[in-house]
Amino acid sequence: MARNNETDTSAINIIRQGTDIVGDITCKGDIRIDGKLKGTLNCDGKVVVGEGGLIEGTITCKNADISGSVKVSISVKELLTLKSTSNLVGDINTNKLQIEPGANFSGNCKMGAVVKGIESSNDRKGQEKTA
Prior knowledge:
By secondary structure, the protein is mainly β. It contains no helices and 12 strands. The chain has strands spanning 12-15, 20-22, 25-27, 30-33, 36-43, 46-49, 54-61, 63-66, 69-82, 87-99, 104-106, 109-111. It starts with 11 loop residues before the first strand and ends in a 20-residue tail after the last strand. It has one domain (12-111). Belongs to the bactofilin family. InterPro entries: BacA/B. This is Polymer-forming cytoskeletal protein.
C-alpha cells in the first residue's frame, strides 16, 4: 500500500474501451490501453495495447505487448512483442523484438546493441589488406 508521498508502481493503469484521450500520459507502473490515445505515452513499466486499443503518437517504455493498432514512434528498453492481431505503423527502437505470425508492421526498426563478431565498414578502415 502506498503512503502519502509514495507511488504504488505495482498498480496497473487501465484505459478502457470507449475512452478517448488526447494528450500526454506519464506513469510509473504498467498501463493497459483498450481505448484510444492520441499523444505521448511515457511509462516506466510495461505497456499493453489490447485488440481494441489505438494509439497515435509516441510511446517510450520498458516493455510492450501490442495486440491493437498503433501509429507511433516507439522506443522500448527491453522487449517489444507484436501479437498476431497487431497493426503497427511507424518507427521501432528496441533491444529485443518478438513478432507473432499474422502481425502487421510497416516502418523502420532499430534493434539492440552491436552484435559480436560483425564488423562495420568503419571498423575495417585502415585494416584493408593488399595482395
